TrEMBL record:
The keyword Protease applies. Belongs to the peptidase C14A family. Keywords: Apoptosis, Cytoplasm, Hydrolase, Nucleus, Phosphoprotein, Protease, Repeat, Thiol protease, Zymogen. Its EC number is 3.4.22.61. Residues 191-287 form the Caspase family p20 domain. The lineage of its organism: Eukaryota, Metazoa, Chordata, Craniata, Vertebrata. GO terms for molecular function: cysteine-type endopeptidase activity. It holds the Pfam family Peptidase_C14. It is found in: Cytoplasm; Nucleus. This is Caspase-8.
Length: 398
C-alpha cells in the first residue's frame, strides 16, 4: 500500500512541477485545447486546476498521460515532455496521427494552429470583422484569438462542422491560413471514410494529391497485388472531374473506365468473382440540377466529350460504380459537412452495420438523403453485380 501511495504522490508531484514550469499563456492554450472535455472551462484558472479536472474525468492518470503529452507538444514545451514524461517530440508527433491515441480533436488543433499564426495587426482586423458577432463589452477584454474562438463557439457561429465564418474571416486576413481550413475539411472527409470502412474490417490505405499518372500507377499497383484472402475491393476517389473522367493534381484527365478496367478478370485474377466497388466524388459535367449557395467540385466543365454510362465499368460481372451526381451535372460540396455524397454514404453505411442490407438498397438511401439537400444531385450507381453485396462488421478486404 505504501508503494502505491508513494507512486501516486510522485505522479502528483510531477504534475505540480510541470504546472510550475508553464507560462501563463501556455496554460491558457492548454485550457482551450481541453474545452471539448471539460464543462465550465471559465472556472479553470491555471494548469493545476486543469490537471485536477482531467484526472476527475479519467483522462489523465499515472498509467495514461497521453493527453498531457499532447498538451505539452501543442504548446511547444518539448523540454517538459522529456524532463518529466520521458518522451521525445518525434514519438508524440507520431502517436497524435493515430485516432486511437489522440484526445485533442482535429478541430481544436485547427483553431490552435490559426491562433499561433496570426500577428497582432491581423488580430485587430479580425476583431473589426466580428464587431457584429461579439458584444463590444466582451471584445474589449479579448487579447488573443482563442478567446475570440470561444465567444464564437458560445454563439454557435463556428463549430467542428460549421466553418463558414472562419473561411469568411481568413479570406480577408490570410490566404495561407484559409488553406489550413480547407485542408481540415479534406481531412475530415477522409477520416469519415476511414472510420466507417475500418469498422467494417477493411484495411484502409489512403493516397493523397496524386497526379494523373500517379492515379493510374496506384490502380495498377493494386491490380497486380494478390487479393486471395480478401472478400471485396473498394476504391473511393475524391477529386475534380468531367464527363467520364477524373483529374489528377496536374490537371491530367484519367478515364473512369481505365480505372475500373484495371480489375477485370484478365488483369486481376485474384479478385475474379468478388465485388469490385468504386465510389467517386467528382464533377461529371457542367450543368446544374434544379433547385443556398454551395461549392461545385468542377474546375473546368466541358460538355463536348461523349461517354455513355456503359463505358464507365467493364462489361463483365461483379463491378459497381457509385458517383456523386448524374452525367453532365456538377457535384456539390456542402461548406459545413464536406461533400453531400460522401457524407450521406458514410451515414448510410453506418446505419446498415450488421443489418444484412444490400449495397443497392444503401445507395438508394444515399440518393434520398442527398436529394433532400438544397441542390438535389442524384447519385447514379452503375452495376454488373449478379449477387447481393452486404457488409458486416466481420468482412475482410483491402
Amino acid at each position: 500500500m505504501d508503494n502505491i501511495r508513494s507512486s501516486v504522490d510522485d505522479f502528483l508531484v510531477k504534475l505540480h512541477n510541470i504546472s510550475s514550469d508553464l507560462e501563463e499563456d501556455e496554460e491558457r492554450l492548454m485550457i482551450f485545447l481541453c474545452k471539448d472535455h471539460i464543462t465550465n472551462a471559465s472556472s479553470i484558472k491555471d494548469s493545476s486546476d486543469l490537471f485536477i479536472k482531467l484526472q476527475e474525468c479519467c483522462l489523465l492518470t499515472k498509467q495514461d498521460t497521453f493527453i498531457l503529452q499532447e498538451l505539452l507538444y501543442y504548446t511547444g514545451r518539448f523540454d517538459l515532455l522529456k524532463k518529466y514524461l520521458e518522451v521525445g517530440e518525434s514519438q508524440v508527433k507520431k502517436q497524435i496521427t493515430d485516432a486511437r491515441w489522440t484526445k485533442i480533436s482535429p478541430f481544436r488543433c485547427l483553431l490552435l494552429d490559426l491562433s499561433q499564426n496570426v500577428v497582432k495587426e491581423e488580430l485587430d482586423k479580425i476583431k473589426k470583422l466580428l464587431k457584429n458577432d461579439i458584444a463590444v463589452s466582451k471584445m474589449e477584454k479579448i487579447t488573443c484569438l482563442p478567446d475570440i474562438f470561444i465567444e464564437l463557439e458560445k454563439a454557435a457561429v463556428i463549430g467542428e462542422d460549421k466553418l463558414d465564418k472562419l473561411k469568411e474571416i481568413f479570406t480577408e486576413i490570410n490566404q495561407n491560413l484559409l488553406d489550413k481550413i480547407t485542408q481540415y475539411e479534406k481531412n475530415k472527409k477522409e477520416e469519415s471514410l476511414r472510420r466507417v470502412f475500418s469498422k467494417l474490417d477493411f484495411i484502409v490505405i489512403s493516397h493523397k494529391d496524386l497526379t494523373g499518372g500517379g492515379i493510374l500507377q496506384t490502380i495498377q499497383d493494386y491490380s497486380e497485388q494478390t487479393h486471395e484472402n480478401s472478400d471485396c475491393f473498394i476504391c473511393v476517389i475524391l477529386s475534380h472531374g468531367n464527363r467520364g473522367v477524373i483529374y489528377g493534381t496536374d490537371g491530367e484527365s484519367v478515364a473512369i473506365l481505365k480505372l475500373t478496367s484495371g480489375f477485370k478478370k484478365s488483369k486481376c485474377p485474384s479478385l475474379a468473382g468478388k465485388p469490385k466497388v468504386f465510389f467517386i466524388q467528382a464533377c461529371q459535367g457542367g450543368a446544374f440540377q434544379k433547385s443556398v449557395q454551395v461549392e461545385a467540385d468542377a474546375s473546368n466543365a466541358c460538355l463536348n466529350c461523349e461517354v455513355s454510362e456503359a463505358d464507365l465499368i467493364p462489361n463483365e460481372p461483379d463491378f459497381l460504380l457509385g458517383m456523386a451526381t448524374t452525367q453532365d451535372h456538377v457535384s456539390f460540396r456542402h461548406r459545413e459537412v464536406g461533400s453531400w455524397y460522401i457524407q450521406a454514404l458514410c451515414n448510410q453505411l453506418e446505419r446498415s452495420f450488421n443489418r444484412g442490407e444490400d449495397i443497392q438498397l444503401i445507395l438508394t438511401r444515399v440518393n434520398n438523403e442527398v436529394s433532400q439537400n438544397q441542390r438535389p444531385q442524384m447519385p447514379e450507381p452503375c452495376t454488373t453485380l449478379h449477387k447481393q453485396l452486404c457488409f458486416s462488421m466481420k468482412s475482410l478486404s483491402i
